[in-house]
């Protein structure tokens, strides 16, 4: 029996699984095909990070426990999108209504080149 419920996910979906049965409950797609990463559960809703896109800064959204489209409640400015996209495999933290992005690699062989170590919004 195949138990990998995420094998048909295309990398930008949230898949909810019933922990008692192991069966898929629902899938949700973020707007504009952005990658999404769950951060926490608050007040029965999934809090998720939506990656920055070419024309949009990163965002934080919630998903209802029954699924559906993510509802963005915290949007970073478009001007921050380039810096957010420059992070190498960022680590994300959600604390007290703020999103923290930590760059997983902070180094450059080139002198006078700016490399962002951390960003926060919220």
Give a structural overview:
The chain is mainly beta. It has one domain. Helix content is 4%, strand content 42%. It contains one helix and nine strands, in the order ββββββαβββ. The strands form three sheets. The protein has a four-stranded antiparallel beta sheet with strand order 3-4-5-6, with no helix packed on it. The protein is elongated, with a radius of gyration of 16 Å. The N terminus is likely disordered.
- Strands, count: 9
Q: Give a quick account of the main beta sheet: strands, pairing sense, barrel closure.
A: 4 strands, antiparallel
**Net shape:** elongated
Rounded to the nearest angstrom, the distance between the terminal CA atoms is 44 Å
Low-confidence stretches: 1-10
Our count of domains comes out at: 1
Query: Structural class of the secondary structure composition?
Result: mainly beta
In DSSP terms, counting alpha (H) and pi (I) runs of 4 or more, how many helices? 1
| Helix content percent band | under 10%
Oligomer: single chain
Quote the beta fraction. 35-45%
Rg, please?
Answer: 16 Å
The neighbouring-strand order within the major sheet is 3-4-5-6
Mean of residue pLDDT values: 78
Helix and strand pattern: EEEEEEHEEE
InterPro entries: Quinoprotein_ADH-like_sf
Keywords:
122 residues, mainly beta, three-stranded antiparallel beta sheet, Quinoprotein_ADH-like_sf
